[in-house]
Amino acid sequence: MISWKNLDTLKAYEKLSGLKNHVKLSDAMAGESGAKRVAEYSVPMAGGLTYNYAAKAVDGDVLAALAELAQEAQLTDKFAALYNGEVINTGEKRLVLHQLTRGQLGDDVMADGVNKREFYAAQQKKAADFARKVHAGEITNAKGEKFTTVVQIGIGGSDLGPRAMYLALEQWAKQNGCAKMEARFISNVDPDDAAAVLKSIDVSRSLFVLVSKSGTTLETLTNEAFVKDALKNAGLDASKHMVAVTSETSPLAKSSDYLAAFFMDDFIGGRYSSTSCVGGVVLSLAFGPEVFERFLNGAAEADKLATEPDPMKNAAMLDALIGVYERNVQGWPSTAVLPYSQALSRFPAHLQQLDMESNGKSVNRFGEPVDYATGPVIFGEPGTNGQHSFYQLLHQGTDIVPLQFVGFKKNQAGMDVDIQGSTSQQKLCANVAAQIMAFACGKKDDNPNKAFAGNRPSSIIIGDQLTPEALGALLAHFENKVMFQGFCWNVNSFDQEGVQLGKVLAKRVLAHDTDGALKAYSDLLDI
Amino acid sequence: MISWKNLDTLKAYEKLSGLKNHVKLSDAMAGESGAKRVAEYSVPMAGGLTYNYAAKAVDGDVLAALAELAQEAQLTDKFAALYNGEVINTGEKRLVLHQLTRGQLGDDVMADGVNKREFYAAQQKKAADFARKVHAGEITNAKGEKFTTVVQIGIGGSDLGPRAMYLALEQWAKQNGCAKMEARFISNVDPDDAAAVLKSIDVSRSLFVLVSKSGTTLETLTNEAFVKDALKNAGLDASKHMVAVTSETSPLAKSSDYLAAFFMDDFIGGRYSSTSCVGGVVLSLAFGPEVFERFLNGAAEADKLATEPDPMKNAAMLDALIGVYERNVQGWPSTAVLPYSQALSRFPAHLQQLDMESNGKSVNRFGEPVDYATGPVIFGEPGTNGQHSFYQLLHQGTDIVPLQFVGFKKNQAGMDVDIQGSTSQQKLCANVAAQIMAFACGKKDDNPNKAFAGNRPSSIIIGDQLTPEALGALLAHFENKVMFQGFCWNVNSFDQEGVQLGKVLAKRVLAHDTDGALKAYSDLLDI
């Protein structure tokens, strides 16, 4: 029997709270004991990845308390309830089924009168078939020319995840002969966003993917109109250049304005939708359906590992638990995501949405205020760029910021150069190893300005290469981590009521139905 | 006489500390009193911009305490000492002269035996002349073809600022007939970064700008070698495709490997170098020297306004002081930068470096530990994208994050579309106005999950359009804000010792001179 309890009512949390500042990381990571930690504090992940948490400020005592917390909070049971189709998104009274887009972890889930696994798989197949026809030149523009570019029009989860995934595999695909079409993305309602994209492409050879679950997202419909104008001005029939990704009940679903429509539903949150048709159509067009399927396989493998009850064998759960320890016991308010891979340049922006939109909540799943901190601020940029930027504060600032590194042994593009006795890839990897140790152990110096306090914890996810499988595993790891943290905090990680008020007020501004300060701001902005 | 004192030794700070939670923002911004605040809490900036702080949790009492703090901390005198050429960067025993790259605020500054204003102006003229010759086809590739693309190779301050400025003006320049060359940027030592850029350009028509003050930055030299390989493989003479931006004493300064060299010096920190040749060469090539000069004029005008002693008339100083109140009295650890302008997509990344690298310090300018918080975590993405992403946490999370909005009445590209009775630009502006009020006043609701606590403070910088002048003013505003905050915190905002340890350890890894955990990580990463 599952019981949903606030974190601060759990006995294990009381125990954990007694372990504040329990581990002195700079000591733990010094000398051979440090090497031993690196060897032992490691959990295999899907996609050939490994989660190494040697440089986190934990030890046997903290880990034991975290394992108790995992059990008392019933993390595994709650995950099972989710994938078996219970109404986990209680606020909106919805199931939470994004895992079903890439595999079946438990019972058949029936909803809307259909088997949902079959529904998602059918949509994926439809996207794959469509992509193959486009690649084969069976679906072309009016002149019979092949489409060369795919442009996703969406915002939030319909943009950040798919865009980050595309960038993550773009160079890999070029190197491996899977680059079928270039992809571009239009998201912002700022007309300069769409204008810049349209100027950079040949619209006559472009296929647009309009993504809106409800079919009513104002930014997206506005950008659709913008694009249709451009197509019309170029003498083209917009309906032959556009497909829709939407829900079956949306106004877009059966419109003759689109070449084809692909469906998702209310059980897939935007920020969890990269493995649904929201990511599937654009990624299958860009890289071919086989690459998208490999990406799904990596995610499915990660989901399976996340069902393991022992956190010492479940990287997503352990990562989540250590994060709760850092947020609620140590009191650290933010986390930096630092991938040592240029391909992951927009992955931090995706995680920022995934994490902050899921767990940035002040009430529990019953709507009662919670008395503890929930989701942290997430930010990040690729290393080594970040090293020459904000790392100064991370090393010597007054606040401690836990760090999540990601690194790969091999690069993607297969080009490299040997300078001063090492390749660029070796330099990249040397830097991430060096940073972990610099943060953990610091350095004494007679000049306090050159001294490093150390004791700044990090973990690293290491892979051989950023392949489609590794990317899928990485994506699902963080989805599952965020879910487990939401369970710990007893919040609903699957709604986003916090975005509503701004929408309502923006409509009032546009209708000139304002007074007071809102009218004053509107006047300042010439609306 | 200037005295450098810690923030917590100032009487005005004690007074300010007594004003914690002094203003209930949701009340202050309600009704007509809110409209009055919007009208009154406004300071003109350079470049036609306005700083409006009506939605900050301040009132006459707080502002009076901040004005006292400004005086007691001698902010205006310290700024004067800086621009008159005192050794403000005490750690590295250097002057701090980036303002001189765009104007002369005070005394002539002599160093290295020359008048530094004349030196910077001469370098700017050299860059302008060079750019004009490239545009006129007087400097071409070996076949006599014009260069069409400029590629900046640099990292940190040699990358983030210039890249953000380029993106900020790219669409404006295209619309106004000033787009002379496309610009690209290579920064990361990850070889996939350079590989992707090289694949996207015609190297035979590309001019590369190598930027390294010391001439020894490993990432940059590695990428230079990478590019030279590519040029050689294309049968091209690298020395005819590359210029250097460096210091006069660097190994690059007089090398025959470069078509030309442009100079900066130790008195311009990387993160403050966008208005020096570091930004000047690439931006003059991309947009023409006249546009770059307009950008400098905006910055110079902002610097001049920053010399005003009264913070109520000095937007940079007031912004800095309110930030100190929020960080040290209210205890808020991060700040989000949210430009409602797609052109400013990388401006938050630039500010992240500028702010966090400058003020992420734990010791004061004498090397003594400080007992108060210094620089906050800075992060951000353009609105409206952020609204569909991390704004959930900003509205309903357990922590308060102060917000910095930026908005413009007009877009840049001149394309727009009218949907549901409003243009995209109007929708964009309506959203920022709506967000300010949603954050400030919140909303009561019987369903606590749909309730908004409000009392989340923000300020907004409003402009007519993002022109070169407005961009220069925006850049200098934040440079000066960060400087004033550094004065308040009594830290040296102009060194970055925190980046050194990682470099040293990375070299040891590459030399295989490691043991313990560092060796263990190196082994895991196959170095």
State the distance separating the first and last CA atoms of chain A. Answer: 55 Å
Mean pLDDT of chain A: 97
Number of helices of chain A: 18
Number of domains of chain A: 3
Biggest interface goes to:
A-B, 159 and 159 residues
Q: What would you say the CATH architecture of the largest domain in chain A is?
A: 3-Layer(aba) Sandwich
State which percent range the strand residues of chain A make up: 5-15%
Q: What is the name of the CATH topology of the largest domain in chain A?
A: Rossmann fold
Query: How would you sum up the major sheet of chain A?
Result: 6 strands, mixed
Number of strand elements of chain A: 15
Low-confidence stretches of chain A: none
Q: In oligomeric terms, what are we looking at?
A: homodimer
The residue fraction in helices of chain A comes out at 40-55%
Report what the structure shows.
Two copies of one chain form a homodimer. Chain A has 527 residues and is of the alpha/beta class. Chain A folds into three domains: 7-96 and 302-497, Glucose-6-phosphate isomerase like protein, domain 1 (Rossmann fold), CATH 3.40.50.10490; 99-295, Glucose-6-phosphate isomerase like protein, domain 1 (Rossmann fold, 3-Layer(aba) Sandwich), CATH 3.40.50.10490; 498-527, no CATH class. Chain A has 18 helices and 15 strands. Chain A has a six-stranded mixed sheet with strand order 1-2-15-12-10-11, sandwiched between helices. A five-stranded parallel sheet of chain A has the order 6-5-7-8-9, sandwiched between helices. In chain A, strands 3-4 form a two-stranded antiparallel sheet. In chain A, helix 6 (116-136) packs parallel to helix 10 (277-287) and helix 7 packs antiparallel against helix 13. The longest helix of chain A is centred in the last third of the chain and has 22 residues, at 468-489. The radius of gyration of chain A is 24 Å and the shape is globular. At the A-B interface, helix 3, helix 7, helix 8, helix 9 and helix 13 of A face helix 3, helix 7, helix 8, helix 9 and helix 13 of B.
